[in-house]
Amino acid sequence: MRISFLLHNAYGIGGTIRTTFNLAQVLAERHDVEIVSVFRHREEPTLGAPPGVTMRHLVDLRKNSPDYDGDHPDYKKPARVFPRGDGRWKQYSRLTDARLGAHLKNLQADVVVGTRPGLNVHIARQARRGPVRVGQEHLTLDSHGYRLRREIGHRYALLDAVTTVTEADARSYRTRLKLPGVRIDAVPNSVPAPSVPPADSTAKWVVAAGRLTNVKRYDLLVKAFAQVVAERPDWRLRIYGSGDATGNEKNALRALIELHRLHNHVFLMGPANPLEPEWVKGSIAAVTSRIESFGMTIVEAMRCGVPVVSTDCPHGPREIIEDGVDGRLVPVGDADAVAAALLALINDDELRRKTGQAALAASERFDPARIAERHEALFAELVAQGEGARSRGALRDGLHRVRGAVLDAAYTVRYKAADVLRKGKRK
Amino acid sequence: MTTTTTGVRADCTARATGEISFTLTDGAGDLVLKLRDGDEELRLETGPDGTAVLPAGTELAEGRWDLFADERPVEAGIRDVRELVDRRPGSGDRVAVRIPYPTAEGRLAVRAWLRAPHAEAGDLTFTEAGCTVEGRLYGTVAGPGAVAEARHDGRVHSVEATCIDGVFSVTLPYGPLAEEPLDRERLWELWLRPAEDAESVRISRILDDLWDRRNVFVYPVTAVGDHRATPCYTADNDLCVRVTP
């Protein structure tokens, strides 16, 4: 098969980029695979280009490049095709509308795969008839605002398949949206086997890693760890990560560490890449998030043989961890429960060792080779069905697009009205 | 961190014994360690499997050593330094530490310390007007008259230190360190004199995997009159007390 991925920016750092690279690399062993990056701002992908995969870009933002597009007049004009509800809307433009449109109209592929809602909408609206259209959801339906959910509910009817990273999110797509004829499958993210030997459960360290933002609830972890230290002062905690555009809890966490007099026990390590050599410095990993779309760090730690104590938050953790077997699930927002679960593993060396071994074995199911097989099977099945049998018949497409045009006009009027109202309020 | 591609990359594994094994990209040539602020060089033969080993017994002078393969700088790959995390070196008269680390440019370097004797800082606790440093003394035995010294700009403040079975403890009042007039920041270096007639030893924290702990080991700030005092580490992992007006 010829498989074409569409990625927002293949040159940055992020979970979607990493998991797309992993998938593309494995598929490239048997198929003709390309990754088309909407933007390119540097020479080499930060995460390293996946071997065997053709890399292309649509909008060049390398300042020293002869093809620099940053000065193009359309680059400053707001996007019309890329949906406003997608958080990246501001980065898209009339130029991306046109470049993506031209790319999708001339697509030489059997399967085209979008990796975020805005790009999935582009595929639904602009891809030529023929290639199988797959939209990947790397976050969750719940995490999108009303406007984007409405647009997804309408546009995704023209996709052949939507893949989510959890069963929970696949259920949301099936029950909350009307997408007749669109295949909705859950395929978890993949994590490769680590480049270092697994942890041996003897280090007296708990490790956590993620953005220092409110959703990760590291404040809860610090409070829980105060209880751990009261009983086991020989154990310590390292938290890796930094803030991002949505916030930075570093100073608040420092203050909390000082308040609980944990400066000898809890350390904010700053960012680390790769994380594998850091996970193996610990014997237990902790995740205290309010929400985890998937829970990439949980799988990463488990692949390093480190058992994870995680909140049982929506959506991913409970689909990764089997409570009491290869890790622990505790109620969301409950510091006492986090502390108790950590102490249970800290106080029982044999339980900790066994749980780590179980985590190592169970997490093999997330190996890129095995995850890629699931995507491959889905793609192959849809390609084999042929255009006529899929939901994307020419007639249906045409009808949907006419209906779409009418709705577009209606949406536009409505959003403009909403904007006027909002602007009015701000004054 | 920005990464400069040089074509040669090395993964490495550091052992608690001091040994470091490097695995280089194919055909990279021998590995050469060069002391950044000196002329010293050390060449390690790279085997046919691309590995080069810095043996535990090969001494590295204290400082930062940059790595080269045939004059090309080496990019830092995976660094497995887990064995360094809670290191407790055996008895011996000197403590040798070598931590492989990535420079700001993403190149592989080795931070080496060589101390004989050595005073390793451990936990810090705080009183209303000062701090207590506990730590471990290596390579010498404490005797009568042990003191800790805070040194700044030619001035020395001494306080009594207790040393029992290689564990030292010092309670340092901040008051004398914040003596008037204080118009700009003072960085007091902390030293330990294990006995009345012994040489003073710099108090540092070097027995783990952190080559620079300035932003990781952050301690409470205490008000001393109108001034503020807090312990901190330098870029060389030496313990200090910073007093700011």
From TrEMBL, chain A:
Protein keywords: Glycosyltransferase, Transferase
GO MF annotation: an example: glycosyltransferase activity
InterPro entries membership: Glyco_trans_1 (IPR001296), Glyco_trans_4-like_N (IPR028098)
Domain Glycosyltransferase subfamily 4-like N-terminal: 13-191
Residues covered by the Glycosyl transferase family domain: 199-359
Top-rank taxon, per record: Bacteria
Protein name, UniProt field: D-inositol 3-phosphate glycosyltransferase
UniProtKB/TrEMBL annotation, chain B:
Name recorded for this polypeptide: Transferase
The species this protein was found in: Streptomyces purpureus
